[in-house]
Amino acid sequence: MSTAKFHYINHACCVVAKNNAAIVFDPYLDGNPQGLTAKDIKADYIFISHGHFDHLGSAFEIAKHCGATIISTAEIAALATEAGCQAHAMHIGGTYKFPFGKVRVTPAFHGAGVPGGHACGFVVDFYGTKLYFAGDTALFGDMRLLPRLDPFDYAVLPIGGNSTMGPQDAIIACEFLQAKYVIPIHYNTWPMLAQDVYAFKAEVESKTNCKALVVKQGETIDIE
Ligand code: NI
Ligand code: MN
C-alpha cells in the first residue's frame, strides 16, 4: 500500500491525497497561512462534519469549481444540492462503499449548525489509509466502539477546548480509540482555542500507546 499525504491547511481543514485522488475535510480557509483560496483546492470528495461556518467554509465553492462530491449528513447534502453541488447524503451509523473505500458516519456531540441536523464525524478508508476524523465533538464513551466497528490507524481530533474536547479529554479519547497516531486539530485558531500542542503530545505519549503527530498549518506529512 502506497503512502498517503496528509496536508493540514488550518483549523479543522485537512486534505488527504493518495493514488492521484484527494479528499478534503471541513474546508474553512479563512486565515490559512498559505493564503489558499477555494480555487487552489483540488478534491474528489469533500467531507463536512456540520454546518458551522468554520467547517462548511468554502465547501460549496470548492465543490463547484472542481466537481467534487460532498459527503455529509442528509441536511447538509440537501443544502449542497440546492447550491448546485454534487452530494452524497449519509447519516450517523451508516456506511457506504465509495470507489476509494468505505466510509462510516459517526456521532459527534456538538451543534449541527443547520436546522434539524446533527453534527457528525467520519471513519474513512481512503485506498487503505484508515482514519477517524472526529469533527467538532465532546468526549463520549461510545468512542470505544468505533475501532471495533472499523479499525483505523489515525485519529484526527479537536483539542482546542471551549467548543470541543480540550487536551485532557482528547487524551482519554485516544485511550478509547486505540489509534496508533493522533493528529491534533481545531486549536490556536482564536485565543479561546489556545493550547500548548507539545504539552498535549508529551502527555498523551506518556499516558497512552498513541503517538501524537503535530502537523503545523500549511505542512504536509506522509501517513501510511
Ligand atoms: Ni462547530
Ligand atoms: Mn468548529
Which tags fit this structure?
224 residues, 7-stranded mixed beta sheet, 14 strands, 21% helix, globular, binds nickel (II) ion, binds manganese (II) ion
In short, what is this structure?
This protein is of the alpha/beta class and 224 residues long. 21% of the residues lie in helices and 31% in strands. Strand 9 (120-126) and strand 10 form a beta hairpin.
Order of helices and strands: EEEEHHEHEEEEEHEHEHEE
Given the C-alpha coordinates, what overall shape results?
globular
Return residue spans where pLDDT drops below 50 for at least 5 consecutive residues.
Answer: none
C-alpha termini separation: 8 Å
Total helical elements: 6
Strand order of the largest sheet: 6-5-4-3-2-1-14
Query: What portion of the residues fall into strands of 2 or more residues?
Result: 25-35%
Helix content: 10-25%
